[in-house]
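Hello forum,

I keep getting stuck at the same step: I have a sequence, I want structure tokens, and every attempt I make locally crashes halfway through. Rather than fight my setup again tonight, could one of you with a working pipeline run this one for me? It's a single chain of 105 residues.
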Amino acid sequence: MIFSPNELSSYLIIGAILFALGLFCVLTRRNAISVLMGVELILNSANVNYVAFSHFGSGNLDGQIYAMFVIMLAAAEAAVGLAIVLAIFQLFHTIDVEAAETLRE
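Reply #2:
Ran it on my machine without issues. Output:
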């Protein structure tokens, strides 16, 4: 069995899989919403690692506190990111990331 809730390595494997999926999504997608979802997956993989190291390491609540800060950061990132995506959609009528390159010109 791959996942045993009594081992730190199981949580690290889950975090690594989430990080790899998020990185794949960020690097391969052209849709801005998909890129934002990939960033959210990366932040959630960090949360899994924070909580796992906190639980199996010192046993105090430091990891949970850091995870709460990351969740607040992810909420702010999602709000700002979606506002930027909506502005790009109103300007170019597409949410393709490549369309934002014309903003430099």
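The mean pLDDT is 87. If your local run keeps crashing, start a new thread with the error log.
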